[in-house]
């Protein structure tokens, strides 16, 4: 018996809140810049034609005939004006939401501020959630309350992360973060919207990652402390979802030192901080440090909020370069003594030279002014303790940091706008007018009273579509795949490509395998996945199972086998309720990839498994489609034959075996601007009429020139101007409708070529791509400028209306081997994600400078042109400064007299694994103990805890070493090699380092020094940032560094071509 399988999707009805265009203040109409421009042209042309009409009415009978023609033209223009005005009307934003997300209403979030608001400012919107719930317009759990953001260049709004406070009350707060700077007047064309899904009981969780809502957030649910924090001293760890600080005495015996601090945030100025803390020991002084400008020992520069257990008083205690202001700002007192072992909630606000402070919602210090002597303008956030011998034993949790402004903005909702579903009559019936899902067609068809099952056009991306079968009578299910007894390399296309879609003209089985690329549909327009038998040629089979689609799914990774077993196995498994045709239910488990994680089960998908490990079981309702043939290996999975957890026939429900063989799938694209197409057709018709009119007038010119010479000439020129304006308008509208022509998107450039990136391994976002082009040939053929200014790189995503220019760096300009370097904007699987593309364009002789910030091209870059060292680097010890465009590291003896310590290191990058580093180095001092060099894979930079790989050079010597450290243990000269000649003091040399897994390579002045050397397990470090340091010698080092470039590295480089 052939395996039988059908997959369908359903999206439950959704409604929303909105704002009508009639209530807009008028300043926000520029939602479509090009259409608005077109409208202005129409207005001008309409005025000209009206003037012309008035003149013609005074002329001869012959000219009156012309006036009748122009009257017809005016009618057509008025209709066109109406269409364009309708497009410009803000109320159509609801239709844009509906076309993209199936929402029937939206409300704009109005943000009015007397001051500019910076990107990443956290906005708080208050809504009457209780009223919405009582009116059955919202779910009590808030899952259907969403925030969306839309910019001019976005074809579709995108959902933002939001946090709800006081859920299901009359004063529910919706918190979200600004996506761009906001001037005093809201930027025209960009807007935030509040959306609801009324009645959608199956609404999955909204995007609600607090790290994308607050400026900084940590609830310590992730035990990987090093991701956000830098340890300084003491026993610091995450335990039971809280940060534990056990400090003992400060290492320097100073009054207070910073134990741990946030790696970034040195630019934070006016902020508000909230946190929970609990000090376990009696008569101890813990507390947070704000505006941390320098966290190094004996250099502490910060404002410390100090508490003492058993006491009522608390202090804001400033430090500047380790100078201690003592109890200068002890003005506040707690309501009662701080109790050891009890949790407290604290809030701190620092604004300019003032601070305020609350404990358990009681104001302790109110807008206290800090004297100029102790003023610190900005800095990050840390935690620490007083110098007591026993030290502190403090727990911290729920740390939230937000940007603060003195006068808070007024945030409110615009009035509701609703969609007239009649406007969408015929949706899905043609390729030019596709629907987002069969459920959308179902909802529209209900208005007409007709529910006809059959073939409809459904979007598979923002601008592509494919024809598949819709079951409208059962609520609007979309057929996305069919499979009968096929399994070999199914993972290559199943549900990720349009494959043999012709078989989807009916849900009946058996049949050949076929599918559509269902990831876009499943991510944005569906909530449920169904497996069905194939014994009904007109819709859902007699037997089926269905369950909600996975929470956290993303369109570029859902059901994508090439993501790999290692990545999938790390994903959290969530419980999900599977419902069956017979009324039974079962709790199963799935991850955000929808892929079975068990290594031996071949990465089957879509998958709901009996446990979190990913096991299969017979005669249960947890099912999955096997996509890999027994005995094969792919993307890290093997298939032992037990991963085929689906029915084998129409009668095999639930399946009696899990060791049989089964399924397979693909993708499409087209924009839906119906009214613009209609407008364009009218323009075409009017343009044709005017051309005929112009030709007729040319023929009559000789006959009339003696009679109405001046008047006629004016008519002729006016009509000529009209035709020119219509051509311009036609081009504008044509640009909006012809989205499939990539060359037309790059205005003012001669040519555009897609950049093809082929890799046998997945490439991560921020990987630096190197494209080689024959720039000399382009220049010689007058197709490009010699300076390279016109050589640009653009990136286009499915949801982008227009490509965006990205930064690129050119090497070997104007040669036959010019290199164009740019950074990937998203993860790239082995097969390039359909719909996303990189393009190189050239040929604009008047091109200004291209986007070429190397910080946006390399994983990390510093040429020290910016003297603000603290922006990227953390000082540890020694005299570290930027001077004359280079980094100067002057160390003398190490503070601990250990062989070596890290003097300065990059603040971020602790997650860097396989990388390639290039830099220039110059050591000024001479001596056997003058040994500078970079540290790679810095996992711990603290004094006496050094964990890193040190590439050590010795001034005036030939030898060099890769010298590993593990928790300050020194491998010494374990990996020693020799340079071509001794290192010359005072001379610059270029070095390159590559660390990949447990191996490293090393070049000096392009000569290989260490070649793919394997590091023993004892000294293995998997990842880490980069730093610089020196040997402990009395003289120390006086080293200069410059032009630091770090890129991600893959062992087999991708093939990049045009």
UniProtKB/TrEMBL annotation:
Protein name, UniProt field: 3-keto-alpha-glucoside-1,2-lyase/3-keto-2-hydroxy-glucal hydratase domain-containing protein
One Pfam family cited in the UniProt record for this chain: 3keto-disac_hyd
Organism of provenance: Paramuricea clavata
Domain 3-keto-alpha-glucoside-1,2-lyase/3-keto-2-hydroxy-glucal hydratase: 222-402, 867-1047
GO molecular function: hydrolase activity
Family matches, as InterPro entries: AL/BT2_dom, Fibrinogen-like_C
């Amino acid at each position: 018996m052939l395996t039988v399988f059908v997959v369908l999707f359903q999206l439950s009805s959704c409604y929303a809140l909105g704002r009508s265009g009639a209530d807009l203040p008028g300043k926000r109409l520029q939602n479509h810049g090009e259409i608005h421009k077109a409208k202005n042209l129409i207005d001008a042309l309409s005025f000209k034609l009206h003037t012309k009409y008035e003149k013609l009415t005074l002329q001869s009978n012959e000219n009156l005939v012309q006036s009748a023609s122009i009257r017809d033209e005016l009618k057509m223009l008025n209709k066109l004006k109406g269409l364009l005005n309708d497009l410009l009307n803000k109320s159509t934003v609801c239709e844009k939401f509906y076309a993209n997300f199936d929402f029937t209403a939206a409300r704009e979030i109005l943000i009015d501020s007397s001051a500019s608001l910076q990107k990443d400012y956290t906005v708080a919107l208050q809504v009457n959630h209780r009223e919405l719930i009582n009116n059955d317009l919202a779910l009590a759990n808030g899952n259907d309350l969403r925030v969306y953001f839309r910019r001019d260049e976005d074809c579709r709004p995108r959902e933002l992360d939001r946090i709800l406070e006081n859920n299901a009350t009359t004063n529910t707060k919706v918190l979200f973060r600004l996506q761009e700077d906001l001037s005093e007047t809201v930027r025209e064309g960009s807007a935030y919207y509040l959306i609801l899904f009324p009645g959608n009981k199956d609404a999955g969780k909204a995007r609600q990652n607090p790290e994308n809502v607050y400026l900084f957030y940590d609830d310590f649910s992730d035990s990987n402390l090093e991701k956000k924090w830098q340890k300084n001293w003491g026993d610091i760890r995450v335990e039971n979802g809280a940060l534990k600080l056990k400090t003992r005495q400060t290492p320097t015996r100073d009054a207070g030192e910073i134990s741990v601090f946030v790696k970034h945030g040195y630019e934070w100025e006016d902020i508000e901080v909230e946190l929970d803390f609990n000090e376990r020991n009696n008569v101890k002084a813990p507390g947070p440090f704000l505006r941390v400008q320098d966290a190094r020992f004996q250099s502490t520069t910060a404002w410390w909020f100090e508490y003492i257990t058993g006491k009522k008083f608390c202090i804001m205690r400033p430090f500047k370069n380790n100078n201690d202001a003592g109890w200068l700002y002890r003005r506040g007192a707690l309501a009662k003594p701080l109790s050891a072992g009890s949790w407290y909630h604290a809030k701190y606000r620092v604004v300019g030279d003032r601070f305020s402070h609350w404990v358990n919602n009681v104001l302790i210090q109110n807008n206290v002014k800090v004297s100029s002597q102790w003023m610190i303008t900005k800095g990050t956030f840390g935690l620490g303790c007083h110098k007591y011998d026993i030290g502190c034993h403090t727990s911290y949790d729920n740390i939230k940091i937000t940007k603060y402004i003195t006068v808070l903005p007024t945030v409110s909702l615009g009035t509701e706008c609703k969609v007239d579903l009649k406007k969408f009559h015929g949706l899905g019936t043609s390729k030019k007018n596709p629907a987002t899902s069969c459920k959308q067609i179902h909802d529209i068809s209900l208005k007409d009273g007709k529910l006809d099952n059959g073939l409809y056009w459904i979007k598979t991306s923002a601008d592509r579509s494919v024809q598949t079968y819709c079951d409208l009578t059962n609520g609007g299910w979309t057929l996305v795949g069919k499979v009968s007894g096929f399994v070999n390399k199914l993972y290559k296309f199943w549900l990720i490509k349009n494959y043999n879609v012709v078989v989807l003209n009916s849900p009946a089985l058996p049949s050949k395998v076929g599918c559509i690329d269902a990831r876009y549909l499943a991510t944005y327009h569906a909530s449920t996945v169904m497996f069905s038998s194939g014994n009904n040629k007109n819709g859902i089979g007699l037997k089926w199972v269905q369950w909600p689609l996975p929470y956290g799914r993303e369109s570029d990774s859902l059901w994508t086998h090439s993501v790999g077993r290692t990545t999938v196995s790390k994903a959290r498994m969530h419980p999900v309720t599977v419902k069956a045709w017979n009324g039974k239910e079962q709790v199963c488990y799935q991850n955000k990839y929808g892929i079975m994680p068990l290594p031996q089960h071949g990465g089957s998908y879509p998958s709901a498994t009996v446990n979190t490990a990913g096991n299969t079981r017979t005669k249960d309702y947890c099912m999955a489609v096997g996509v890999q043939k027994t005995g094969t290996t792919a993307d890290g999975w093997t298939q032992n034959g037990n991963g085929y957890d689906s029915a084998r026939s129409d009668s095999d429900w639930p399946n009696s075996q899990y060791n049989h063989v089964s399924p397979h799938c693909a993708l499409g694209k087209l924009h839906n601007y119906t009214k613009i197409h209609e407008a364009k057709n009218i323009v075409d018709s009017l343009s044709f009429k005017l051309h005929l009119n112009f030709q007729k007038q040319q023929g009559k010119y000789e006959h009339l020139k003696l009679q109405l010479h001046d008047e006629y000439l004016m008519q002729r020129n006016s009509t000529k101007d009209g035709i020119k304006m219509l051509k311009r308008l036609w081009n504008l509208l044509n640009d909006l409708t012809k989205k499939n022509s990539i060359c037309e998107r790059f205005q003012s450039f001669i040519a555009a070529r897609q950049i093809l990136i082929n890799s046998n391994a997945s490439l991560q976002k921020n990987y630096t791509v190197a494209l080689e082009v024959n720039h000399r040939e382009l220049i010689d053929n007058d197709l490009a400028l010699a300076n390279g200014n016109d050589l640009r790189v653009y990136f286009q995503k499915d949801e982008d209306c227009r490509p965006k220019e990205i930064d690129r760096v050119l090497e070997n300009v104007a040669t036959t081997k010019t290199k164009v370097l740019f950074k990937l904007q998203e993860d790239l699987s082995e097969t390039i994600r359909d719909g996303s593309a990189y393009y190189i364009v050239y040929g604009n002789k008047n091109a200004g400078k291209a986007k070429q910030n190397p910080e946006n091209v390399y994983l990390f870059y510093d040429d020290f042109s910016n003297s603000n060292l603290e922006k990227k680097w953390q000082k540890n010890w020694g005299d570290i400064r930027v001077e004359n465009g280079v980094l100067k590291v002057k160390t003398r003896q190490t503070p601990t007299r250990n062989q070596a310590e890290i003097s300065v290191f990059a603040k971020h990058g602790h997650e860097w694994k396989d990388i390639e580093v290039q830099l220039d180095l110059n050591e000024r001092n001479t001596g056997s103990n003058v040994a500078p060099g970079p540290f790679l894979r810095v996992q711990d930079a603290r004094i006496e805890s050094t964990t890193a790989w040190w590439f050590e050079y010795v001034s005036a010597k030939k030898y060099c070493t890769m010298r590993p450290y593990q928790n300050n243990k020194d491998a010494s000269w374990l990996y020693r090699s020799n340079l071509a000649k001794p290192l010359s003091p005072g001379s610059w040399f270029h070095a390159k380092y590559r660390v990949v897994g447990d191996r490293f390579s090393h070049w000096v002045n392009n000569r290989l020094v260490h070649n793919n050397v394997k590091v023993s397990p004892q000294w293995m470090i998997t990842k880490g940032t980069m730093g610089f340091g020196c040997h402990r010698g009395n003289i120390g080092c006086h080293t200069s560094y410059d032009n630091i470039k770090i890129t991600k590295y893959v062992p087999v480089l991708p093939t990049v071509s045009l």
